[in-house]
Amino acid sequence: YYGSIDATPLWLVLFGQTWRWLGDRALVDELMPHAERALQWIERRLHAGNGWVRYQRTHDKGLENQGWKDSRDGVSFSDGTIAPSSIALIEVQGYVVGALEAMAMLARVTGDERRAERLRVQADALRRRIHEDFWVRETGFYALAIDGLGRQVPTLTSNPGHLLFVDGVPRDRAARLVDVLLSEGMFTGWGVRTLARGQAVFNPLSYHNGSGWPHDNALSALGAGRYDLGDAALRIFEGLYDA
């Protein structure tokens, strides 16, 4: 089943990390045609989604939700109302920022400085839009998504934590983001919950509405470290280790 909205930008993020770790120019040359196709896929989605990478199933047997929280109730308002598609998930937009930054870096590797600068400017613009459109004043946190009616889905979830590992938030907001992730309603002592206590949809044993996921925690902790919030990163990893 290929209903995955996040695999393509995440592959480009991985490609960029692979270059940083290995410095293998031959591998870059081999994979760049595929990376270009991935970037074209993203650009088509951005154009079709009014500036966001969105998903909406195209068959009645397809998954209704196509991010990592792919359960039927994985993207809902805090009272339990299911958000109507098409859906622009907060973390996916962050992955796109990371993908654009990765491709900018790889463009420099291949000697295309003009294109590298264009991609960097595009990433910066998207980063600003994420902050402007997803920031929820009432909660002082980022929305889970923007739904098909253009509304913020302000449910307090772990998803915005993924913005940290792709440098997707302004530096002055990173500390606030981490504070919410480690708040009493989100942090169990063994990691960050997928969704905060106190909301109608919360269930500590649910698949995506209150349980804790190691990969979800790991990306937030990695990102906290990249924003020099090492104490927060250590607290999350120690919780996972204790569990």
- What's the overall geometry? globular
The portion of residues forming beta strands comes to under 5%
| Helical/strand content category | mainly alpha
The biggest sheet amounts to: 3 strands, antiparallel
Average pLDDT rating: 96
In total, the number of strands is 5
Calculate the terminal CA-CA distance, rounded to whole Å: 32 Å
Multimeric state of these chains? single chain
- Give the C-alpha Rg: 18 Å
- Low-confidence spans: none
Widest sheet, order of strands:
1-4-5
Order of helices and strands: HHEHHEEEEHHH
Number of H- or I-type helical stretches: 7
- Helix content percent band: 40-55%
What does the model show?
With 243 residues, the chain is mostly helical. It contains 7 helices and 5 strands. Helix 2 (25-48) crosses helix 3 (90-109). The longest helix has 24 residues, at 25-48. The mean pLDDT is 96.
Task: Itemize the secondary structure elements and their pairings.
Blueprint lengths: L6 H16 L2 H24 L39 E2 H20 L3 H22 E2 L4 E2 L2 E2 L5 E2 L17 H11 L32 H13 L3 H13 L1
Antiparallel strand pairs: 1-4, 2-3, 4-5
Helix pairs in contact: 1-2, 1-3, 2-3, 3-4, 6-7
